[in-house]
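Hello,

Our lab assistant flagged a job as stuck in the queue for most of the afternoon. It eventually completed. Since we weren't sure the result was trustworthy after the delay, we are filing this so someone can double-check. Below is the sequence as submitted and the structure that was eventually returned. Let us know if re-running is recommended.
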Amino acid sequence: MGKRIRAGAREDFPAKTKDLLAKRVGVRCSNPGCRQLTSGPHDDPTRAINVGVAAHITAASLGGPRYDLALSPEERGSVDNGIWLCQTCGKLVDSDDSRFTVASLNGWKRIAEAMARGEIEQRRELTAEGTQKFQRAERLMSALLKDMRKDLADSPLSREFVILRRTWSYWPGGNEFGYYLDDYPNLDGMIQVLENLELIRDVTRTNVKRYRFTEELVDYLITTTPRD
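-- returned structure --
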């Protein structure tokens, strides 16, 4: 006979697991669009402040966000089912579990651990400093990146897009996306910034401007949801 599941049963993380989750990401929030430091000094020299939380990727109890009935109590309370977040992002991911899926949270965790490893190994491309270009892009063109996220979610294998006006006649050559100068103020400038940040490449073959996403940008867009 299978184990009877009580609605109130909850598998919390042991203190050792919480500590490990925090340290594996350098005690920073694992949301690559946030990366807030979650620990620092208290006025009392014998204490430290913590604003981080060990969040469950699949819920600790029945009825919680992303609950997975197939997991055992041990698996539910294991480090594999945890992600270290700041309190804001922890609340965010549990308030909209259809938006923040198991796959996206595991993506955050993978990237955050890679960034922490890069900082230790002093590899610039994986460090928190390397995310500044994404933060800059979000600041300058959040609406465009939001639409790119949606497009990639709908067509995850597509990599190219063209720049158009709605009055132009254009016959798609494949499964490329189209972004319109009519819809985005200074779209040409946004594209130039993305090129300068080496997040897209110009692959124009005709008189219609065509660009290709880098895999770095694709990985960022499909695994992150920066705060509004």
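-- support follow-up --
The delay was a queue issue, not a problem with the job. The result is valid. The first strand starts at residue 39 and ends at 41. The mean pLDDT is 86.
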